[in-house]
Amino acid sequence: MKVFVFPGQGAQFPGMGKDLYLKSKVAKELFDFANKLLNIDITNIMFGEDEKALKKTSITQPAIFLHSVITAKVIGEKFRPESVAGHSLGEFSALVAAGFLSFEDGLILVQKRAKAMQKACEKSPSTMAAIIGLENEIVEKTCKDIDEIVVPANYNCPGQLVISGSFKGVELACENLTKLGARRAIKLSVDGAFHSPIMKPAKDELEKAINATEFKKGICPIYQNVNAHPTIQIEEIKENLIKQLTAPVMWTQTMQNMFNDGLNEVVEVGPGKVLQGLFKKIDRKIVCSSADLKF
After folding, report:
1. Got the DSSP string for 181-244?
2. Are 245 and 92 in contact (CB under 8 A)?
3. How far is CA 27 from CA 55, 176, 294, in A?
4. How far apart are CA 56 and CA 114, in angstroms?
């Protein structure tokens, strides 16, 4: 059984989407429409070489969403998933690709999400770090014992858990976890503490936008980040999307549940191959590939 998965923030790269724009009429029309809808020339940033401009959250998120969703549109009839899922931001891409949201509504929500998160980051400077080589329970307990904001944020794969919080909280957690045997504690180049209580103002903004948006019946279930379970229920999907900004991304659990449910063929739709690499760490027998684009 096949699952299509969509990457999140961090998958961006300079020049992303330019080949789609030049080779596909469908892609060109959607990119041009996005420029008008967003009221910014986002394709100019995506197709250019300014890596710093592309890393700004308010640009990164709609850029990755556009690359992912437009790729799904271009592959057309080959997009036949038994289920879909997306890592953090990628959940919005998955919802649009599977028909729960229109392209326009999905893009507007992603833009609002990105701007709200950017604002929250600027209001409360914060950061994230990847902890490599420790059991989840050790990382969770260490974060809980620190008298600063620092929480588990992304359960990426066995032995890799990203933490998120204040600069001091993350610094203390990295020091303590290194002493407890972490193989590495890698500070991430991000704007702020995503999937932590610091994103509460962004969550409140996004909740209003989500509740004002029309959702429709999708073509297949979506495994959501906050609980790692598949659903087709609209109200549940909306509730989980709202919770997602301050809750951890349960990606390890999602991958394990997919595998247990018989989803053993993974197609990554969007920039990069990060998610394929994470699936291979669950079980090397899982068939992983990128979306097949033949122009």
Report:
1. T-SEEEE---SS-TTSGGGHHHHHHHHHHHHTS-----SS-EE-TTT--EE--HHHHHHHHHHH
2. no
3. 22, 48, 13
4. 9
DSSP symbols for 28-71: HHHHHHHHHHHTS-HHHHHHSS-HHHHTSHHHHHHHHHHHHHHH
Active site positions, annotated: 88, 195
What does the alpha-carbon distance between residue 118 and residue 217 come to, in Å, rounded to a whole number? 31
Element (H, E) at 114: helix 103-123
Two tokens, residue 246: 């301050």
**Interstrand relation of 83-86 and 222-223 (parallel, antiparallel or unpaired):** parallel
What's the whole-model pTM score? 0.96
For the beta sheet containing 265-268, the strands, ordered from the edge strand earlier in sequence to the opposite edge, are 230-231, 222-223, 83-86, 2-6, 265-268, 287-290
For residue 86 the two structure tokens come to 């997306």
What is the b/e burial string over 195-228, where b = at least 16 CB atoms within 10 angstroms of the residue's CB? bbbbbeebbebbbebbeebebeebebbbbbbbbb
Do 133 and 140 form a contact (C-beta atoms < 8 A)?
no
Closest CA to 80 of 292, 294, 295: 292
Q: List the end-to-end C-alpha distance of the chain, in Å, as a whole number.
A: 26
User: Is residue 233 packed enough to be buried (19+ CB in 10 Å), middle (13-18) or exposed (0-12)?
Assistant: exposed
From residue 131, how far is each of 12, 36, 165, 185, 276 by CA, in Å? 22, 40, 14, 5, 20
Provide the CB-side half-sphere exposure for 70 (13 A, CA): 28
State pLDDT tens for residues 187-201: 998 889 999 999 999
- Whole-angstrom distance, CA of residue 40 vs CA of residue 17: 16
Q: Percentage of the chain surpassing pLDDT 70?
A: 99
The pLDDT score that the predictor gives to residue 295 is 64
In angstroms, the CA 40 to CA 43 distance is: 9
Distance CA 2, CA 198 (A): 36
